[in-house]
Amino acid sequence: MESKIDLTGYIRNGLIAILFSTVWFAFENRNYQNTWYTINLVIFAVAVIFLSFLMIRKPAFRRKSDRTFAERKIFSQPAWSAALLVIFFFTFSGELLAKGGARFVILLIWAALCGALVAHFYPNKNPYYVFASVLLFGGVLYRTGAFVNEVSSSPFSLGWSEGSRFYNASLFYSEKLYGQSLPLPALHPSRYLMQAFPFLLNIDSIFLHRLWQVLLWIGLTGWASWLFASKIGKGLKLPVFWLSAFCFLFFFQGAVYYHLMVCVILILIGYQKDKPFRTLLFVIVASLWAGISRINWIPVPALLAVSLYLIDRPFDGKDWLGYLKWPVMWSVLGVAIAFGSKQFYQTISGENPAFFDSAFSSDLLWSRLLPNSTFMLGVLPAIILVCLPLLMLTGWLLRQSKGAKIHWLRWLGLSGILIVFFVGGMLVSLKIGGGGDLHNLDAFLVFFLLISLSLLSGRLIADDPAARSHLPDLPRIPGLLLMFVCLVPVMFAFMRSGSWSGGHDSDEQVRLQQIQQAVEVINEVKPGPILFVTERQLLTMGEITGVDIVPEYEKVFLMEMAIGNNMEYLQEFYDLLDDHYYSAIIFDQIKTDIQASWSSFADENNSYVRKVTLPVLMDYQLALSWDQGEINLLISNNQPELMERLRQITNQ
After folding, report:
1. How far, in Å, are 286, 380, 606 from residue 23 at the CA level?
2. At what angle do helices 7-28 and 35-57 cross, to 10 degrees?
């Protein structure tokens, strides 16, 4: 069947895919028109001309049957060439290919060209499979390569909240690290519990902590992807690596966080349709984990097991009690245990229970539903784009399949689960602090992929044995649709850009020494607590000494309380500021401007400025600044002697 693929049709579909990529680049970079923008328009014009020629003249491209050439196997599997392209993308530092969209266009053109060339010289090769292999392999390598810069030995935070993660992880070993028992983290406890593993081994290298975090992202996402491919998508009869690569990229469209993947992996490993007690055991374990994760994940383990049950178990419409008893038991016990786990953690955390689930009191930003300055696509169009290829493919296959009858109860259960997580994820995404991507729809993405792959692979078993039929073979799927399925998750992977930076910033040690000197001066002139609102990892990793950790008023938590309108918490902070309780404050970038609605994360910025930055500046003044204003040392007002001593450190 593969040898009958129409090469002319493949070239036509490849040109359509290239047009899609150029239009996407033009849309993504409509406000940033550099040289590549012009090149992109040229590529678009050439593709339109060539596509018009194919549709008007209808030439027939023939496959070559040169056996001598066909025996040179090195040319028959070009997926490896995507690795060279990815290395080039991350090592080329010029402005021309700085944008991920430009790199995506190049990879797509190369994948389409590889499919055409391989099919021309190897008649037994399916060009669409070649295209998919090159594109997916390149996408996985690119998304993985984007983590390289996150494995750094720099003692300073690499992003707005990166340093906070290491500090939160350290709270599980606070007595060993800080000599005092501190409250456990209220935000994402399970994530920080996983990130705390290096502290168990007495590792204080921030490089190894960052490496561990990247391994969690890649390893757990890869493991879950392999389980989806080998267990759920087995009926597709595709190479496991090929399907795993697709799942890997699909999950990263959210991205689906790695601590949610723990629940997914446990259920996929533990579920067996003929062993309900075994399944129940794994639901309990996964629910314990979900309870200390996020509140919207609480029903995930139980409903994952229920979804697999509805997929695997036919129903004749007679014994309702017998059919539903296990799904009901898993659901009730799973949710109850997850809630119990949540309450138990709050009790032992030592933190105020009012600080948990602060999102309930935060505002909804309906503007983030559609394209906006914070998220170019908008939450609703983005999730539609992510799901559309599999929806189209599933719809096509179901139309081709005849006689597969599924009881309405099973359809109702599966669709109801999808609706619950879709609505819940959308509401969380529209909360202030969210909506910058699709990560709050992570649970929905997991269930959507599970159900879609089950339909595509024929795992969804029909109720009437006499009416069961196999879905059509994959080679019969329209080629353009298969391209679209592979294209979208790769496109999301290339929404990241940047280059690998192997150099070392020689000024880092100078900044570190100056901060240490400033701490020593403060301890000498005006002893007292020094509040690290930001850069707490410097204390965690022992880079800065002579400072007792202050558990309250860490940057990410301050932001959470600000956007959650927790005025009781903030008023306590204001009282301490008014009393000049802190000898000094290490603060992040000082921005006092109130941003207009067209600025990215304007609502979050404005809330932080009004409720945190401005109150701090009323009682404290800037003494020293590092890293072009990213790190600032503030001291209380009317401290001329301390100010003079501090400014001698950097001659500011």
Report:
1. 43, 20, 34
2. 150
SS3 85: helix
User: DSSP code of 494?
Assistant: T
With contact defined as beta carbons under 8 Å apart, do 381 and 370 qualify?
yes
> In terms of Cα–Cα distance, which of 500, 497, 385 is closest to 106?
497
Check if the beta carbon of residue 632 is closer than 8 Å to that of residue 639: no
Q: Tell me which residue has tokens 């895919």.
A: 17
Whether residue 135 contacts residue 486, with contact meaning beta carbons closer than 8 Å, is answered with: yes
Query: Mind listing the pLDDT tens digit for each residue in 220-276?
Result: 999 999 999 999 988 887 889 889 999 999 999 999 999 999 999 999 999 998 999
- Per-residue confidence (pLDDT) for residue 478, from 0 to 100: 86
Q: Which helix (H) or strand (E) holds 626?
A: strand 620-626
d(CA 309, CA 325): 11
pLDDT per residue as tens digits for the range 537-561: 999 999 999 999 999 999 999 999 9
Residue (of 493, 456, 460, 452) closest to 473 by Cα position: 456
- For residues 366-380, b (16+ Cβ closer than 10 Å) or e, as one string? ebbbebbebbebbbe
What is the helix (H) or strand (E) element at residue 288, kind and residue range?
helix 276-291
Q: Where are the alpha helices (DSSP H) in 350-502?
A: 379-400, 408-429, 442-457, 479-493
509 and 136 Cβ atoms separated by less than 8 Å: no
Q: Which two tokens stand for residue 127?
A: 């060009």
* Token duo for residue 77: 């599997």
The domain limits of the chain are 2-149, 205-352+360-463, 507-650
What are the residues facing 530 on neighbouring strands?
584
Q: How far is CA 259 from the centre of its chain?
A: 11
The burial of 452, by beta-carbon neighbours within 10 Å (0-12 exposed, 13-18 middle, 19 or more buried), is given as: buried
Rounded to 5 degrees, what are φ and ψ at 431?
A: -70, 145
Two structure tokens written together for 22: 């150029």
Q: Is 83 exposed, middle or buried (0-12, 13-18, 19+ CB in 10 A)?
A: middle
pTM: 0.94
382-422 per-position pLDDT tens digit: 999 999 999 999 888 877 766 568 889 999 999 999 999 99
Residues 6+ apart with CB under 8 A from 372: 378, 435
Position of tokens 């935000």?
Answer: 187
Task: Determine the pLDDT at residue 166.
Answer: 96
Burial grade of 91 (CB within 10 A; 0-12, 13-18, 19 or more): exposed
Alpha helices (H) in 313-378, listed in sequence order: 320-349
> Strands 620-626 and 584-587: what pairing?
unpaired
d(CA 315, CA 407): 6
**Contacts by residues 518-523 (CB-CB < 8 Å, ≥ 24 positions apart):** 518/584, 518/623, 518/624, 518/633, 518/646, 518/649, 519/544, 519/545, 519/546, 519/547, 520/546, 521/642, 521/645, 521/646, 521/649, 522/583, 522/584, 522/635, 522/642, 522/646, 523/583
The pLDDT, as a whole number, for residue 538 is: 97
3-state secondary structure of 584: strand
- Chain centre to alpha carbon of residue 374: 16
Contact 599, 372 (CB under 8 A): no
